[in-house]
Structure formats: C-alpha cells, structure tokens
C-alpha cells in the first residue's frame, strides 16, 4: 500500500506543481501587483513541493528525509539537465549557457563546499536553536547572489536570441560554425508551434476572472501541501519497510519525486529552444534548495547538518563533482564533434548512478 501511495502522490505532485505555476503566471498577467510580489508568488509556487516535504520530514521526526530531499534534489537536477542534453544532442544545450549560469553554478559549488566542510567537522554550535554553520551558509548565499548580480553580463548577442509569439514561437538563434575563429552567424529557425500541457491549460483558464484564479491558486496550494505531506510519509514508510534507510530514500526517491516538475520544465524549455531558460531553471532550483536548508534548520531548532546520517556527505560531494563537470560544459569553447561534446553529459549521468550506489551501500551498511 505504501508503494501505491508514493507512486500516486508523486504523479499528483507533478500535475499540481504545473497547475500552480500556470495559475501564478495568469495572476502575473491579470493583476496589478508589484513585480517583487509576483516574483515571490512564482517562486513559492515552484518551491512549495520541496518545502512541504522538508517540513513534513521534521514533523514526523525524520530529518534525514529532509536533508536527503534537499541535496538529492541538487544531484538529480544536474543529472536531468545532462540527460536532456544527451537526448536532444543535436541542440547542444550547454553551448547556450549565459555567463550568469556559470556564475550561479560556481556559487552552488561554494555553498555545497561550506556544507560539506561543516559536515566533516565538529561544528555543531547553535544560537537560539539556529545552527552557526547555517548562518555561514546564509551569509555566503546572499553575498554570492549579490556578486552574481553585479558581475553577470548578458551575452545575448554572443550566444542566443529568442523572439516569442503569443500563439506559437518564432526563434532567432545565433549559431556557431565551429571554426577556430568562432565566427557567429544568425539564422532564423522556422516558426514552430509547441502545444504543451501547460500552454493548453493556460489558454483554457485565461477566460476566467482574476478572483477565480486566486481562489484556484490557494485551493491548489492546499492540495500541494496535503499531497507533499502524504508523499513524505509514504517515503518514510518505504524507508522502514525496505530497510533502505531514510538517507537513501530521501536522496534518491523523494528528491526525484519533488524534482519531477523541474524535469517537465526542462524538457518543455528545450523543445521550445529556450535553452538558457532550461539551464537557469535547474540552477535556480538548486540555489533555492539552500534557502530550503536554512529554513528547515531554523524550524528544526537544532543544528540540522549534525543531526543527520554522515552518508549525506557523499551526496553533497557528488553534487559538487556533477556541478564542476556541468560548469566545464558551460565554459568550454572548442568542440571537435557531437560525440566529443557529449562526453561531460555522459560523465554526469554515469557519476550520478555511481554516487547513488555508493550512497545506497553506505546507507544500508
């Protein structure tokens, strides 16, 4: 029964997350709220599944699920981006990464390094129940975000340009000719209509009033809270019933389930040839996981990092390795051919499963 519950709630959380994002987007178009309010709304809609599972993990006194969900999600997100790059190999997704993507990747690596260092040291000090190491993470996060914002340079003319039509999408993409001189030529890719689930849903809901959309938003958010809680409880049941341990179940099954909406988003963005959006969505999700970590630590009232299984260190270190490979893919300039280009993506996918096996062995051992 616990497996059926987990499967059903995992599928539902994907549908609800997409529905919630569409509603938030409609509110953005219909309301007169300020930009920062809309940004908060959109961010909350995307992050609600992860936050719900983390909070529920604390309620059922299983912080390992929360920790596994957070860093397992980072590991899974980078793997999915690499896997999508392999599937859509002709499009060379990483080739279109903006400089800001590389900066954000570097920040995630630094933040992961701070967490890994704290986990490997006896640094379990706290102030009013808030871990001192989490204060360091929070400071590094906000300083890092400020630096990324300051030094990011939009290289739209160098990499890619997008022109969007309301009903369909017209793309103008700068394409490299792979010569040593790296001369860029522009070409127009034919008008293409990509009728996705969220696009059809938005069209159907657009005719309703703003008040009705708001009501739907809060109802959907409530269902996400309920479904996310049931998903977490089911994951806890699987950990107990199978003996796999909360660390592995949280890092592998729960993290993958709560990251499924990002998977759908990445595939949709790549189909729409909005490659930078696909990369940005994944990195944004990874960055938000550190906010999730900080909030979860504050709610736990004890140093979270030092209250969980030591095996989580493998997940954090593995995510750093995947991020370094992904960063290399974003920054490299010369690629001999398609298969040479794909080597980093293959390495990311391979290392994901190797690290998952290592985590499995150390969790049940």
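^ structure tokens above, recovered residues below v
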């Amino acid at each position: 029964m616990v497996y059926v519950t987990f499967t059903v709630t995992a599928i539902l959380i994907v549908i609800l997350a997409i529905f919630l994002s569409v509603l938030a987007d409609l509110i953005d178009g219909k309301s007169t709220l300020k930009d920062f309010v809309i940004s908060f709304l959109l961010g909350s809609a995307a992050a609600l599944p992860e936050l719900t599972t983390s909070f529920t993990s604390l309620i059922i006194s299983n912080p390992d699920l929360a920790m596994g969900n957070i860093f397992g999600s980072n590991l899974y997100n980078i793997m999915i981006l690499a896997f999508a790059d392999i599937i859509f190999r002709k499009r060379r997704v990483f080739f279109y990464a903006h400089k800001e993507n590389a900066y954000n990747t570097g920040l995630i690596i630094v933040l992961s390094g701070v967490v890994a260092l704290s986990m490997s040291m006896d640094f379990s000090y706290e102030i009013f129940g808030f871990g001192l190491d989490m204060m360091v993470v929070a400071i590094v996060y906000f300083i890092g975000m400020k630096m990324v914002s300051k030094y990011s340079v939009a290289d739209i003319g160098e990499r890619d340009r997008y022109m969007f039509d309301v009903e369909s999408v017209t793309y103008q993409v700068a394409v490299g000719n792979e010569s040593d001189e790296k001369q860029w030529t522009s070409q127009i890719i034919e008008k293409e209509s990509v009728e996705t689930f969220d696009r059809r849903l938005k069209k159907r809901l657009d005719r309703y009033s703003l008040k009705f959309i708001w009501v739907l938003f809060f109802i959907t958010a409530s269902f996400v809270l309920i479904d996310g809680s049931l998903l977490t409880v089911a994951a806890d049941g699987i950990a107990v019933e199978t003996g796999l341990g909360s660390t592995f179940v949280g890092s592998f099954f729960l993290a993958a389930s709560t990251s499924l909406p990002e998977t759908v988003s990445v595939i949709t963005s790549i189909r729409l040839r909005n490659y930078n959006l696909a990369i940005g969505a994944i990195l944004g999700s990874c960055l938000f996981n550190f906010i999730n970590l900080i909030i979860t630590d504050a709610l736990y009232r004890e140093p979270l990092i030092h209250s969980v299984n030591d095996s989580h260190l493998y997940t954090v270190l593995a995510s750093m390795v995947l991020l370094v490979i992904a960063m290399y893919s974003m920054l490299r300039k010369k690629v001999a051919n398609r298969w040479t280009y794909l080597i980093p993506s293959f390495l990311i996918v391979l290392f994901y499963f190797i690290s998952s096996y290592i985590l499995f062995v150390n969790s049940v051992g």
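The chain has one domain: 2-364.
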